[in-house]
Design a protein that fits this description.
The chain is mostly helical. The protein contains 17 helices and two strands. It is a multi-pass membrane protein.
Length: 457
């Protein structure tokens, strides 16, 4: 069928409108990722766990030598959050691939994404109730919110392939990340003011901030829900039975078929390692700043504000560089910078505000760029019609569902009673990830997946 002369092609305008709506889910969930997951909840839950273990609110975790009892095992309060993220990842490994397979077969992807988002945001708002020594409630809500965040992102990321052409994806993905940093930064700034005004009631201010992040996540999810249309599935792998049986069948088929896409598999392995390092740095930064470098909550929050707003420029600059030199080369350069960031963090002395803020600037420059480009780069390496399922594998190591790094960080801290060697140990993840990434043949991987090769690879 050919387009009649004189009839304008409205496809680009329609895509642009949906892309603008799609960006807003980055804005929505980044409030939770920043305010709750990255900044406030980890040290807050650590303090709650310390009270439960030691009977007082310790300002120095090393003075608390008693352990929590979890399933008959002694767990250091300072390591609890990292073990929880590890547990959430194990659950994600079982759940998210099935979510992805189901999403690929669904004609209501946008609706699925919003449903998962609202379930996660409900858990995030309920964190307001965590107080005293009730670390069990906090632990349960963190795991639930992390699982639903991961499920929503599986579907959200897969929608990128439907609303953007191959040459548009770096730009679209990076703009989404930049808007996410802006939204997360704005709410974090509001919470910074709240913590300052309620300096004598820090715990109440933290709990209100946790609630605000969940509410923000829920409200702004309405924009992509209303602005991105549902589409019928395409090129679905034939499977027998109902949706659940079909989803498990498709998952098994995908795991078998990964052998036919060796470049895609190599990138997934690379991403598993280097993104574990990135996510663990994000999760550990607030605890590291408070417990190791002995900064107050307000200073740590200020540093994260720096990360957020520098991250906007970082994401957009990395997209420009990728357009000229290729996405693969730009990600490689970003990982080299990450190695320097880890070394700088290890060397930063306690209460050195200048170096701590320099560390925040360095993280902001590289954080958004590597994450945004990794998402768009991976979208080029997956076969059409199976985007959500492949992105479920991707999400198993994305935005807080990493497990190697958090487990390593928690174990090294428990063995050494210090966060410095735990941070330095993360260099192994970046080095291994960089090694696998250098083995990725971009043009071959895109061709094997049956996709059109962009002009610059």
């Amino acid at each position: 069928m050919t387009t009649s002369p004189g009839i304008a092609d409205l496809g680009p305008l329609t895509r642009a409108r949906e892309q603008r709506a799609w960006y807003w889910y980055d804005w929505a969930n980044s409030a939770y990722v920043t305010t709750t997951a990255a900044v406030l909840f980890s040290p807050y839950l650590t303090s709650v766990a310390e009270r439960a273990a030691c009977g007082y609110a310790s300002t120095d975790e090393r003075s608390c030598t008693r352990h929590l009892q979890v399933l008959g095992l002694g767990v250091s309060p300072g390591s609890l959050v990292f073990y929880l993220v590890t547990a959430a990842t194990i659950l994600s490994a079982l759940v998210l691939p099935v979510v992805g397979a189901a999403a690929d077969r669904s004609a209501r992807k946008t609706t699925m994404m919003a449903g998962f988002a609202w379930a996660g945001s409900a858990a995030a708002m309920l964190m307001f109730l965590v107080g005293g020594t009730d670390w069990v409630l906090g632990a349960a809500l963190l795991v639930v919110a992390t699982l639903f965040l991961g499920a929503s992102l599986v579907v959200y990321d897969s929608i990128l392939c439907q609303i953007a052409e191959p040459d548009e994806r770096d730009r679209v993905s990076s703009r989404g990340w930049a808007l996410g940093y802006l939204g997360g930064g704005i709410l974090l700034a509001v919470n910074f003011v709240l913590l300052t005004l309620l300096a004598d009631h820090t715990e109440l201010a933290v709990r209100i901030s946790l609630f605000s992040a969940g509410l923000w996540w829920a409200v702004f999810t309405l924009i992509p829900y209303l602005g991105v249309r549902n589409r019928p599935p395409v090129d679905v792998v034939p499977e027998q039975g109902g949706l659940v049986r079909q989803s498990f069948g498709q998952l098994w088929q995908t795991l078998r078929d990964l052998r036919a896409f060796p470049v895609t598999l190599t990138f997934l392995v690379a991403y598993l390692f280097y993104n574990d390092g990135i996510q663990t740095v994000i999760y550990a930064a607030s605890v590291y700043g408070e417990k190791q470098l002995h900064f107050p909550k307000s200073t740590v929050l200020l540093a994260f504000l720096v990360v957020q707003f520098v991250g906007i420029a970082g994401a957009l600059v990395f997209a420009r560089v990728a357009r000229r030199t290729g996405t693969h080369r730009t990600i490689v350069a970003g990982l080299v910078i990450w190695l320097g960031v880890v070394v700088l963090g290890y060397l930063t002395p306690a209460r050195s505000l200048g170096l701590f803020l320099a560390l925040a600037v360095s993280i902001g420059v590289v954080l958004g760029g590597t994450q945004a480009l990794s998402r768009s780069f991976y979208s080029q390496l997956i076969p059409r019609g199976r985007e959500a399922e492949y992105f479920s594998l991707y999400q198993a190591c994305e935005r807080g569902t990493s497990w190697i790094g958090t487990l390593l960080f928690g174990l090294v801290h428990q063995w050494t009673d210090s966060y410095r060697p735990a941070l330095l140990a993360l260099m192994v993840l970046f080095v291994v990830g960089l090694g696998f990434l250098l083995l990725v043949d971009t043009r071959r991987g895109i061709t094997e997946a049956g996709n059109r090769v962009p002009h610059v690879v």
